[in-house]
TrEMBL record:
Protein keywords: Cytoplasm, NADP, Oxidoreductase
Protein name: Sepiapterin reductase
One Pfam family cited in the UniProt record for this chain: adh_short
Record's subcellular location: Cytoplasm
PANTHER family (UniProt xref): SEPIAPTERIN REDUCTASE
GO cellular component, one term: cytoplasm
InterPro entries, sorted: Biopterin_syn/organic_redct, NAD(P)-bd_dom_sf, SDR_fam
Subcellular location, principal: cytoplasm
One BP annotation, GO: tetrahydrobiopterin biosynthetic process
Length: 202
């Protein structure tokens, strides 16, 4: 087992390649039947109405982490995996959100980033055809630190109240429950490549 701690918001393709080759191990040609790249890193960004968001540096940093970084990381990942002498089955999973499909007040940055990522990976599925399997998976409303941040800082009172009530009435999903659903979807492998699938759709 190997791991690496990096700031995705400041990495370039060369850095990603060094990290991934070190993680895989450069001293051997690994034999894998399946490899899965899961794009889960992300942030909420400014939880304000769009009319109140003005810091261009903060906006650029948000999109660098949440959108731009997934492109070279995916590209380098595919390059390395395709260099193996064995040819494993490749899955690329983008952790999406209902917000990729539906606008939500005071979540304009988050919604736009999720929508952009969905489209990036739909394009990847179109370009790669049967060579890889691509999934945009929306894990549902999770009971996690991101939800805590959302309830504390969301500018829109109705959205804040909605998520607060979901927490109080135990409507938020345990992370483990959603991960198990994702694993089931990948194991059954019946989805259309590039499709957006919500936890509650399957």
């Amino acid at each position: 087992f190997r791991s690496a701690k990096v700031d995705l918001g400041s990495c370039d393709a060369e850095t990603f390649e060094c990290i991934l080759r070190d993680t895989v191990g450069s001293d051997y040609d690994p034999v894998f039947e399946i490899v899965i790249l899961v794009h889960n890193a992300g942030s909420l960004g400014a939880l304000n109405y769009l009319a109140n968001i003005q810091d261009l540096n903060a906006i650029n940093k948000f999109y660098q982490l949440n959108v731009s970084s997934v492109i070279p990381l995916t590209s380098v990942f595919l390059k390395i995996i395709r260099g193996f002498s064995t040819k494993p089955k490749i899955f690329v999973v983008n952790i999406s959100s209902l917000c990729a499909l539906s606008p939500t007040k005071s979540l304009s940055l988050y919604c736009s980033a999720k929508a952009a990522r969905d489209m990036l990976f739909k394009n990847l599925a179109l370009e790669e055809g049967d060579a890889i399997r691509v999934l945009n998976y929306a894990p549902g409303p999770l009971d996690n630190d991101m939800q805590d941040e959302l309830r504390a800082l969301c500018e829109d009172p109705e959205v804040k109240e909605m998520f607060t009530k979901m927490k109080e009435t135990n409507q938020l999903l345990p992370v483990k429950t959603s991960v198990e659903k994702l694993i089931l979807i990948l194991k059954e492998n019946k989805f259309e490549s590039g499709k957006h699938i919500d936890f509650y759709d399957y």
